[in-house]
Amino acid sequence: MALRSRNKVSPNFNMSSMTDIVFLLLIFFMLTSTLVSPNALKLLLPSSKAKTLEKQTISVSITKDIDFYVNEEKVEESNLENQLKLVLENQMEPAIILHTDKSVDIEHVVRVMDIAYRNKYKIVLATKPN
Description:
alpha/beta, two-stranded parallel sheet
């Protein structure tokens, strides 16, 4: 008398649900990575092959019309140092990344660098990669 088991386990493994999840994650990360914009102001940055290694704690931008922005908030040039002190007062290692249009005169860039030097802030000039 031959007895057969009623429950047969299939040795095959179905990967279709796993691939669906992987493709959904891939699409999600592709869409969200294009939406991330570290600097919302449209500036024509000078180009360079160097990479920025400093971690950014605050962003200072100078537009071609010589408008100063601290983290996308417009600031008067005379009030720039006070605004930077307010924003960076609780930072352990304060660092500034300077975004400037390539048509801006160097004296405005040096003025921001001088503020960073007087207050012992690290400063990095942002460039567009080649």
